[in-house]
Each structure stands twice: as structure tokens, then as C-alpha cells.
Design goal:
Layout (H helix, E strand, L loop, with lengths): L5 E4 L3 E5 L5 E6 L2 E4 L4 E4 L3 H18 L6 E4 L4 E5 L2 E2 L2 E8 L2 H7 L6 E11 L8 E2 L1 H6 L5 H23 L3 E15 L2 E7 L7 E5 L9 H4 L5 H12 L2 E2 L10 E2 L2
Antiparallel strand pairs: 1-2, 2-3, 3-7, 4-5, 6-7, 8-12, 9-10, 9-12, 10-11, 12-13, 12-14, 15-16
Amino acid sequence: MKSRRLVYEGKAKILYEGPEPGTLVQYFKDDTTAFDATKKAVLEGKGVLNNRISEYIMQRLAEIGVPTHFIRRLNMREQLIREVEIIPLEVVVRNIAAGSLAKRLGLEEGFQLPRSIIEFYYKNDSLHDPLVTEEHITAFNWATPQEMDDIIALAVRVNDFLSGLFLGIGIKLVDFKVEFGRLWENDMMRVVLADEISPDSCRLWDAKTGEKLDKDRFRRDLGGVTEAYAEVARRLGILNDQPGGERKGPVLVK
């Protein structure tokens, strides 16, 4: 990838110029951050797992008609994606009280919300991604009313599908963060799902034990972060143990 032009580098991913116009290569790093990047670590293999998990989920969402930026996986760490104009919002869908919602509203973590809640955060690192309302979003033209309708409808569909998908493998989808982008095709524009969906961007709890299988293991110093991500991949059927009963490390299904 050194021969390709770097377009953007974030906390967990790098975007490079793609092989064709209108495409990018998304590279998943092992870097892990929390609390506005004040806590940092490199967790070997995390990027590989997130690449494969996000690939699987994006493919499954496309099968039910959710438009995404994903085209195909290139290798163990890279995906070919469509270039989109990112809408500067982090869209968080919450099913169970946890994290900042529990703290902000004084709720007990694990409280089942009366219904799923969608929150919006303005993507701005210097402002620490503040919580905003639809009024802010449309007033400052971060997204139009029609785009907001599309975003909310897609977020609800993604939540419905993922909740069922994860519950089927014994995992509760507590909450998740997604981003959306504008995909231009000639003079036509449509809103599509972008970024990634992985244990980095979801809270996932074992349905029986409540064990955390997501980035909270890093945030809360619980340890076993990549092992938890690997367990999610294993349950999704994209990670196999090595034959013969030897556990020398995970083997990803190609």
C-alpha cells in the first residue's frame, strides 16, 4: 500500500486511493484507542478480526437491501470500498442502557430500554463529538431533512437485523455506532452505510453470562480484547479453531 496515495488516517483505519476512480482501500489497524484517544494500545490481530467481522456484516446487510460502501475484501486487513462523502454524524442506536447513556441519565447498566433510542453526535474531535439533535443537524446543514429520514430508516433496519443475527448466536446487541455517507452516481445521490461494524463499534454481551465481547474490555481494563473479538468471529462462523484440538491461535476462514 506504500505506493498508493494516503487519503485519510483515523484512530483505527487508514484510507488509501483505490485502484479505480470512485474507490478507496480501507486498511484496518491494530491500534486501539478510548476516551478521546487518551488511552492507546496496539492489540495484535485486532485489525484482521475487525476486517473480517465488518465484511461479513456488510455482506449480510446488502443481502437484505441495505446500501453500503463495501465492495469486497482484498486481503486480511484491507477492503475495497466506494468513495463517499461522509455525513459528519455518528449515529448511535441503543437497546440496553450502558456507557454514556447510563451515566448521563442515571440508569443502571443493563436496563432494558422501553424502546430502541437513536442518538446523534457531531463528528468533531476538537469538540469531543458532542450529542446533538435533529434541529442542530438540519439547522447547520450537516444533513438535510430527507437525508435524516433515510439515516433513521436505515439505522432502524440495521438494528432490527443485527439484533436478530447476534441473538441467534447467543449475543445481546446492547448498542452500536454507525456512520453514513453520500454516494454520488452521475447526478444521483443516495445515503449509504459507511465506515465499519465490528466489536470496536458495538457493545456485545454474551446472552447468558453478560460477558462483554467488545471494546469495553479495553476501556475497562478487563483484558482479553482480541480473544473476545475472536469469539464473536467464531460464533459468526468466520473463525475456525485449528484441527486436531491444538489451540495455537485462530485461523480465519478464507
